[in-house]
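Progress against Task 2.4 (sequence-to-structure conversion) is shown through the following example record, which the project officer requested during the mid-term review.
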Amino acid sequence: MRVLFVERELSYEPQGIMSMSAVLKQAGHDVAIAVESLEDPVAYAAGSLPDIVGYSVMTGSQRAFLDLNLRIRQAIDPARSAAGKSPAFSAFGGPHPTFFPEMINEPGVDGICVGEGEGALLDLANALTRFSESSALSWGNGGPAAGVGHGRPREIGNWWFNVDGEIIRNPVRPLIHDYSALPQPDRALIYDKHPGLAGSRIKHFISSRGCPYNCTYCFNHAYYEIYKREKRGQQRSVDDVISEVNAVRARWPLEQAVFVDDLFIIHDDWLEEFAAKWPAQVGLPFFCNVRANMLVKNPRKVELLKRAGCQTVSMGIETANDRIRVDLLKRRMTCDDMIQTGRMVRAAGMHITATNILGLPTSTLEDDLDTMRLNAQARVSYAHAFLFQPYPGTELGQYAEDNDLLVGAFDDIGEVAWDHSILAFDADDCRQREHLQRLFAIGVEWPWLEPAIRRLIKLPHNRLVDGFYWWVHKLHKGFVIYRRVHPVKAGPKELFKSALHFMKIKS
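Structure tokens generated for the chain above:
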């Protein structure tokens, strides 16, 4: 099969797509990617006539991907028919279809993948191959119901199919337990397409999947409702991670590894082994995600991270309000835990970033300003601030919906979590929180600016104010990230290219 992944932009390496591509290529399928920010994906698809068109969809981007899929299908299906081929199969996966599978009813959607995609997409591609060879074709919802109709297998784990209006819901297969058995992610797919990512000295990796905690705003608790009785936190072996990093370094520039695991420090024995092997076999600085109360309860984890060569860690602060943090977010830790963590990490010679959620249900503007002060007390090197988004499938998203706290529906959620809020706040309150998101890190960096920030966030939304705040936010973030969080050596030309790429990223 010819499989074409379609992305709207590439800010960083898409771990899921790279892993699925490696699995598909290992089985003999052809894989390509089209990126809308770099080329016309409709023209690319028309030139290659893929058998499967795949989309990885985050909530907020679903409408754009659905529209793009229809345009691609309109361009390629007549050409495929003229060439004696069946219409392409449109496959949607990622967080939005997983937690909002009703997406299967949208026009042009042939199948959605719920949960992990490696085995599911491979089985679909293999089924399509078999049935294309036998020419036993059936059609549904504007595309082939491959593997699910007229004598073909209807049971492909993780897939929901639309066959002539009939929705077929297959159960999920077990999670992959041995991630080290997967082929290494297909980075060439991304780097051959995007020279900026290929040339960057900072590259992203993943050493585990899953998280044992139940934060209500996060997808993990909802994910394990789908995968009941599954162990949380599947870990690759240290040797496998090191092998991948060294393979990447042998082919592309690399000076810092960014581990995008939800939580890097879950398993003590794994971290001990990593701290022993990474410095000797890799020796590169790295970035990872931690959890404050875990470090406070076990300070040795800080020592192990430092010994391994960690440059920067990131922790979730989210809110300074104890009631909201413990009762609503189910994050059972104290403000003092976060202050201690920040000071421990900084005392060890590492930097620390923090994530924060503004505009949480039942919160006030003063809560958000208190959170800004808490970040400063914790000596946070850079404070990321997001506006709460009620993502489908999450407990907190359902709470907001059940309590009539939303203005709009899922399609009104922004593609990025720092654009606007859809919670039913007073208009003035909502505007001030949206402005505070842009100025939050400034207030953490220089707490004495709080009186000025309080005045600035009262200004109205307009192109001048919004544009100025965006530039202040972007320039400050870029400077701090480059100097503290991910410091790498770069010449003027490379620095210019990196800055240009950063400015295009929507964050």
